[in-house]
Amino acid sequence: MSVSAWLTARVTGAQEAVVSATAPGAAEVVTPSLPVDHDSVTVALLGMRADTDYEVTVHAIRHGGDGWSEPMTFHTGSLPAGLPTMSAHGDYSLRAKTLLGVVDPIAAAHAAIIVDGDGQVIWYHVTDHPVTDFQRQPDGTYTACELSPGDTHFDQFDREGRLLRVWTAPPESAGTDWHEIRMLPGGQALLWGAETRTMDLSAMGGRPAAAVVGNVLYRVQPDGVVLFRWSAFDHLAIDDIDPAVDVTQGTVDWTHADAIDAGTDGTYLLTFRNLSQVVKISADNGDILWRLGGKRSTFTFPDDPLGGPSFPHGARMTATNTVLLFDNGNGRATRQSRAVEYSLDEPSGQARLLLQDGSSAPRFSPDMGFAQRTFPNTLVTYSADGYVEEINSVISATPLWTLQLDASTAPIYRAVRVNSLY
């Protein structure tokens, strides 16, 4: 259940109502305009801190003139024991609302959480297992992946934390991949599964009968019917794998897909960590339209001093022909991670560097990580350090906002900024 209070108010003669809640040192909670039904309105107040005294006011909107209630006071409840704690600092302390999935298998409690700019939990959804991907979907619902061997799945719930549906990869898949789910119009979902094939990798220095794991992208309906299936084995080559990946093991994690982005032009953007490549495909027939980075890249990187992405995560289209990603950097001699954005010129085959933001104190996150454009800034997750910063290198080398988990051994899968909980 989220940190919230349900309020029912009688607003006689009003057509709409707006409810606000304030507390010293905390961001004001303001609901959208709410329709009044039979002189009454009921709403969940979202985004409040725990164990805090709040003052609530109802603004009644009437054709004949607005009115305001007398302030009402109440004290919010406590958080469940065992939720992660953190500290945050910066210029956006009151406005920031950040979604976090903290991957801590030994924690006393697991939850998808939202924190304010001071690192205080203002919303949570308790889960049975550690949370990886947690995000708000375009339809306003939330999804959170519960990571559990043999039972990994995505919960979908509404803004009040009520479970709506559980999503898994089709039964043919070797389990549900925990990296990402994206909701589409019509209630459909994109998510990753996997398949394993026995392959001879002796020519690459591997075993003659290696178990090669490749990803499968599914578009599914709520009833589980598969509408689209795209297997990496049908479109990519085994030697596309990054040279830094160990292929001598009995099981080889070949593609290691970690992100999906649905374009507005009938395409999907797929991120493959172990290929050091982002691939754009047709959502209609699955044809590859271009490849960014890695072997057989469609693009060169004439002004990127690092020569393109290495083991990337979370690629997103930020504008037409513009891609933002978190570049982990595992395959480089100097291991330093960064957020990087490219402008893609398809006729010339060049990926021009638009943005390169590394931490003010160089950091290396070998796993996970994310970069989100929070115009005009960039929110960057250095997962391994349990650290997030909002930066704008054009303005200052100093981060505008930072967040650090108190237990730095637990990684943050990714941090995602939202403007409102409504």
Structure notes:
This protein is mostly beta strands and 422 residues long. Helices cover 1% and strands 49% of the residues. The chain has one helix spanning 232-235; strands at 4-10, 16-22, 29-30, 34-35, 40-46, 53-61, 67-68, 72-75, 86-90, 97-102, 110-116, 121-127, 131-136, 142-146, 153-157, 163-167, 181-183, 189-199, 210-220, 226-231, 251-253, 257-262, 267-272, 277-282, 288-292, 312-319, 322-327, 338-345, 350-357, 370-374, 377-382, 387-392, 396-405, 412-418. The strands form 8 sheets. Strands 2, 3, 4, 6, 7 and 8 form a 6-stranded antiparallel sheet that branches. It starts with a strand and ends with a strand.
Give the SSE map.
Blueprint: E1 4-10, E2 16-22, E3 29-30, E4 34-35, E5 40-46, E6 53-61, E7 67-68, E8 72-75, E9 86-90, E10 97-102, E11 110-116, E12 121-127, E13 131-136, E14 142-146, E15 153-157, E16 163-167, E17 181-183, E18 189-199, E19 210-220, E20 226-231, H1 232-235, E21 251-253, E22 257-262, E23 267-272, E24 277-282, E25 288-292, E26 312-319, E27 322-327, E28 338-345, E29 350-357, E30 370-374, E31 377-382, E32 387-392, E33 396-405, E34 412-418
Parallel strand pairs: 19-21
Antiparallel strand pairs: 1-5, 2-3, 2-4, 2-6, 6-7, 6-8, 9-33, 10-11, 10-34, 11-12, 13-14, 14-15, 15-16, 17-18, 18-19, 19-20, 22-23, 23-24, 24-25, 26-27, 27-28, 28-29, 30-31, 31-32, 32-33
